[in-house]
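Can you give me the bound-state structure? Components:
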Amino acid sequence: MVALAAVFVFLAARGADGLHAPRSLYEPAAGSFWGYAGKLLYGTTFAAVLAMVIAVPFSVTLALFISHYAPRRLAVPIAYVIDLLAAVPSVVFGLWGARTLASTTRPVQEWLSAHLGWFPLFAGDASATGRTLGVAAVVLAIMILPITTAICREVFQQTPRLVEEAALGLGATRWEMIRLSVFPHARSGIVAGMMLGLGRALGETMAISMVLSASPLVTLKILTSDNPATIASNIAANYNSEDTRIQTVLIATGLVLFLFTFVVNFAARWIVTRSNRGLA
Amino acid sequence: MSATAAFTPQRGRSRAAKDRTATIVVWAAFVVALVPLVWLLATTIASGASSIDLDFLTHDMTSRLDPVTFKQLPGTGAAHALIGTLLVTLGATVISVPIGLLTAIYLVEYGRGRWVARTITLLVDVMTGIPSIVAGLFALALFSYFFGLGTRMGIMGSVALSLLMIPTVVRSAEEMMRLVSADLREAAYALGVPKWRTILRVVIPTALPGIVTGIMLAIARVVGETAPLLVAVGAVDVTNKNLFDGRMMTLPVYIMSQYRTSTPSGYAHAWAGALLLIAIVMALNLVARLVGRRFASRTGK
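Here's the bound-state model for the whole set.
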């Protein structure tokens, strides 16, 4: 059994090893690799953060709806439907985002860029196809919504019933009860859920690579046709290259992504343990 | 404390108004969040259903001769992708179920509290966070180490997928086996049954329904994975039934590559594939839940 554990450890170590080794193969212009990876990393983070900004308020209120607002009879099927959303494969989201959402929201995007163009995010000319980072971020947000909602819902439901009843008994309205008893109790759980969602958004490939035709660049504009690529979408776009050196570069960027998500996940765990201690 | 501050006398009307606003906001968020799901499903069904027929399910994308008119017909089907998905997923299951199950057994029965067990738990947690495309790259790196760069095999996809499956399997199996009551185990020990036999004959059978559910949910999770397969397995138009020889087509990659053709027929194929994939994933989910519920009620009695 310990031998099996050793195999398991070996597998993980091999993963780091296998991703690490080709990096030494990467010779041409090693100095620019970090610039290359940095730009991709920027795109990755930017898209994920945008998605989070959209998804977080929704998932918190949605979880609240399921745990405290919806009639008991409705809550269970709704939770089930949200879980089903998590089961929809990412290619289908990508397909839907590129074919349906992009063209449907084009008027909205044009309006935003025409009237709110002073805002850095909406600056520049709106893309003619509607396939922009903004749409990709919305698709990403929809994709991470189920997982963040599920986690928030769980921690909301774990609020001690007695504390809730006590708050209500002191004359608090339902909203005050939630603000004073549910939120403080669930804070670390919410953060953990957000971080998990962020980790997922960072590594998501298909939604970005299908919606966008992207290249590694740094920009704040989310409605133009020049869109920053993410590490994952860049790999998906170029994996088929005949040049084996490009493949090793891609593997190296994959390693960067791996380490980055690892750091994010680790930070999430750290935050959770810290805030748990603060509550106790 | 903020609690005492908030309970100082306020005008009741503004509090009630705040409460009402919150209620409305929460309900509105729910409705808005439901929109994409309904929209997505409706679009997929509307655009996909018309293209799914016997032709689609039984042919691959190679062109063929029409037996009646002897005209060259373009490829119209996803049969090769279905077969590929089936084989690759099967391979992933075969790899990850034993590893995942044995790891879970070790964690629950043997390694309780030991640093090895803690390390494994940490590793499993870390593996849960692996971006799927990194898993594909790992398989690519691993196999190119042995077979040279540019190798593409179905089994590579299986390896990549199993990397994503193992944590899920370990997690669910572990949870289920922890639920097996200590009374049952101790009763077996008291009868003089050795530990391995207790695990094999008492713990596993009791936890089996839960484990099966967990495995099926894990399969449902990886069936729709695109990125690792795209990277590790590649895409072809012909049916390839050999996991160890060359590129294979899988359903998610099929959707992707049909979408990339940017032609009306390509889009139609992509939607049809998407509908098929959603149906498969949903069916797996439903069956898993049914299995779980069926057996749960049986053992519960």
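A couple of observations. Chain B touches chain A through 78 residues (CB under 8 Å). The mean pLDDT of chain B is 77.
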